[in-house]
Amino acid sequence: MSAKVTMESIKKLRKKTGIGIQDCKEALEKSEGDFDKAVEFLRKKGILKAQKRAGRDTENGYIGSYVHNGQIGVLVELVCETDFVSRNEKFQSLARELAIHIAASAPNYLSREDVPKDVLKKEKEIVIDKLGKQEKKPKEILDKIAEGQMEKFYEDFCLLDQVYVRDEKKKIRDLINEAVAAYGEKIEIRRFVRMILGEEE
Questions:
Q1: Band (66; pLDDT cuts 50, 70, 90)
Q2: Domain limits for position 22
Q3: Could you report how far apart the first and last alpha carbons of the chain are, in Å?
Q4: Rounded-to-integer distance, Cα 162 and Cα 174, Å
Q5: Residue 137 shares a structural domain with residue 100
Q6: pLDDT of amino acid 155
Q7: Does residue 106 sit in the same domain as residue 169?
Q8: Is 103 in the same domain as 140?
Q9: Residues 135 and 145 in one domain
Q10: In the prediction, which pLDDT does 127 show?
Q11: CA 167, CA 120: separation in Å to the nearest integer?
């Protein structure tokens, strides 16, 4: 390792790009320690993609699994930017914890953005109908009250909005945000599947 290429500079480049240590080391050596030239080297070599989704790629990750008494099975895909994080035991443990939560809480959707519009419309109509029978208020007021009560729907059926089964002070979204803060890179739940023995799709 040359005087211009230090382990600190390699780690800095790795954190910025999510590229492996050896490739970062080579890029810095070829660029004589120049950080910007090293990034350009990686880009030209095709290792670093010019365009990244939301500024970050999440091409690595871990599939957490959990089977409850042979009756309920869950798979959840937790993704991150680097293989370094995906191999971390705590990251893998988080994926398993998410699978356990999903087994217990049975979410229908990953986030509130994934709920079909027709489902939201129907749920809101049900809430407004109930409110209308209980409170004699203008429709505009009932609509606003219904919007507030829809939060309960999201907490029941959207994974990220659900209260974590092991800690009622946290939501699943909080667990993901804590992981992002801990590892310093983008982490997200990409998808999940929950199966019950004998249940048809």
A1: very high
A2: 7-50
A3: 57
A4: 10
A5: no
A6: 92
A7: yes
A8: no
A9: yes
A10: 77
A11: 28
Contact call for residues 60 and 81 (beta carbons, < 8 A) = yes
Per-residue confidence (pLDDT) for residue 152, from 0 to 100: 87
Catalogue the E-assigned strands of 56-199. Answer: 60-68, 72-80, 188-196
CA distances from 124 to 6, 25, 135, 145 (A): 59, 56, 16, 10
Whether residue 64 contacts residue 76, with contact meaning beta carbons closer than 8 Å, is answered with yes
Which residues are CB-contacts of 176 (< 8 A; sequence separation ≥ 6)? 160, 187, 188, 189
Question: pLDDT tens, 10-62?
Answer: 888 877 776 767 778 888 888 888 888 888 887 776 655 433 434 556 679 99
As a whole number of angstroms, the distance between CA 128 and CA 141 comes to 10
Residue 128 and residue 107 share a domain: no
Q: Are strands 72-80 and 188-196 parallel, antiparallel or unpaired?
A: antiparallel
Angle, helices 117-134 vs 139-157, to 10°: value is 120
Residues 28 and 102 reside in one and the same domain: no
CB 57 within 8 A of CB 49: yes
b/e map 2-22, b = 16+ CB within 10 Å: eeebeeebbeebbeebbbeee
DSSP assignment of 61-78 equals EEEEEEEETTTEEEEEEE
pLDDT in tens, 127-174: 777 776 666 667 677 777 777 778 888 999 999 999 999 999 999 999
Q: Using CA atoms in the order 132, 136, 139, 140, what is the torsion angle rounded to 10 degrees?
A: -120
The reported pLDDT for the residue numbered 167 is 94
Q: Is the pTM of this model over 0.85?
A: no
